[in-house]
Design a protein that fits this description.
Layout lengths: L1 H18 L7 E4 L13 E5 L6 E4 L1 E2 L2 E5 L6 E2 L1 E8 L2 E9 L7 E9 L2 E3 L5 E7 L13
Antiparallel strand pairs: 1-2, 1-11, 2-3, 3-6, 4-5, 7-8, 8-9, 9-10, 10-11
């Protein structure tokens, strides 16, 4: 029962962060890369509180989502939409693909409680960041 209360309080705090003040902007970011589509690279995703189009993504670096292997900075997501639906936040954006048959993929994810998930069932924990100053540290062997 105490665990349920803690989860509810964390979920409430997360929603307050996502819909809170613009002056103390905070991002909700994946802790580990999220598998956003079958056969594609797992991505790190961040959402800016209070911004209905505030989604950024990057490919993980040597330290996972705490670093990036893409750049020169994190990417502002194309066609992004962030909406609150009950106790969850729904995220949608477009991702350019290197395929002639399917040049754009739509990414759908949901933040609920302390996790971000996709419709396929992939889940990763989220964290709060004050800024998206993610350093570029390519994985070893690149």
């Amino acid at each position: 029962m105490a665990e349920t209360r803690v989860h509810r309080l964390f979920a409430l705090a997360l929603l307050v962060l996502l819909t809170g003040c613009h002056g103390s902007a905070k991002y909700i970011s994946t802790v580990r890369p999220l598998d956003v589509r079958s056969g594609g690279p797992a991505l790190c995703i961040a959402v800016l509180s209070g911004d209905p189009t505030g989604v950024w993504w990057w490919e993980p670096g040597a330290t996972g989502c705490a670093s990036r292997s893409t750049g020169p900075d994190v990417f502002k997501a194309d066609g992004a939409a962030v909406t609150k639906s009950g106790d969850q936040v729904v995220i949608t954006f477009h991702l350019a693909m290197q395929s002639a048959e399917r040049p754009v993929a739509t990414v759908n994810a949901t933040i609920k409680g302390d996790e971000m998930s996709t419709p396929s069932g992939a889940k990763v924990p989220v964290q709060s960041l004050q800024a998206l100053d993610i350093p570029e540290i390519p994985p070893r062997g690149r």
